[in-house]
Specification:
Layout (H helix, E strand, L loop, with lengths): L1 E5 L5 E5 L19 H17 L10 H16 L12 H21 L1
Antiparallel strand pairs: 1-2
Length: 112
């Protein structure tokens, strides 16, 4: 909420007030902080993976291969190549997806 007021000397004062949510969200995931396009782009990479290979088969790929792929996509982006030539999706999204795969494997192996 934003209020614009004049003080006694004619100066303009801008007063802001934080509007607190009606529902307590402490300790809950703030998914609204994630860029929606980022999630949708990762979803498209996962969908393409499922069409090319098999759904969720990335879970059984060696972490080192995901790491190598992430680095390849990062280096391609660093060398001014924006889109992957095979999928036509952004190299950083491929890199992020591979990082997600690595993260998943790391958590999975810690639990086993």
């Amino acid at each position: 909420m934003l209020k614009i007021l004049d003080d006694i000397n004619g100066n303009i004062l801008i007063i802001t007030k934080l509007i607190m949510p009606l529902k307590d969200s402490k300790g809950k995931s703030a998914v609204e902080l994630i860029v929606p396009d980022f999630i949708l782009e990762i979803w498209q990479v996962l969908r393409a993976w499922a069409e090319k290979y098999k759904k969720n088969s990335w879970q059984w790929v060696d972490t080192e291969l995901h790491y190598a792929s992430a680095i390849r996509h990062l280096l391609a982006w660093k060398n001014w190549e924006k889109l992957d030539k095979e999928s036509w999706q952004h190299h950083l999204i491929h890199c992020a997806t591979n990082c997600m795969f690595i993260f998943y494997n790391e958590k999975k192996w810690k639990q086993d």
